[in-house]
Fold this protein.
Amino acid sequence: MAKVDLVKAVTELEEDLVIEAVKAQLADGVPAVEILGQLQEGMEGVGKLYEANEYYLSELIMSAEVFSNAAALLGSALADGGDQKAIGTVILGTVKDDIHDIGKNIVSTILSCNGFKVVDIGVDAPIETFVEAVKTHKPDVVGMFCLLTTAFDVMKETVAAVKATGTSATVLVGGGPVDPNVAKWCAADGYCKNAYDAVEMSKQASGAN
């Protein structure tokens, strides 16, 4: 039987082939970390196609699902490897008065597949929840999502409260109606147009670039 190109299968969203290839490589004794690297490379391919407008949000959602399902097969094998240290910690949450989570979930998955420890505090997250998470986890990055313009004010207040903790974390904002001007108005450190911006900015913030 022909060997499946795992990277290509991920990029082309061929979930059945991806699962088959991961199982085959595990059976052949390929280290889980190495397989994870191939999955990540495939996701980078998805990101490039997304940036080139060849893939859209539906493909991005599907790619996150394909990755999650494939990575789940590696769970115990990766834990056995034990030497995979996260390159940084990111807190993610949708701000209070907003319950949208698709974008947050995609970013969470893609950050995880790029080696970050992600602390997801959910949707409609009160300011105090962000502040407590920052104090507890001492993150490199705090990412806030907002898909409702009516929640812009609370996002601005949340950014201010996070910064008032004295954290050195980079505060990033994103979501449908958010743009660089909104980010500046909120006094955030950066604006992420998509999940791949979030990965690049998080790498910079954690010194992984």
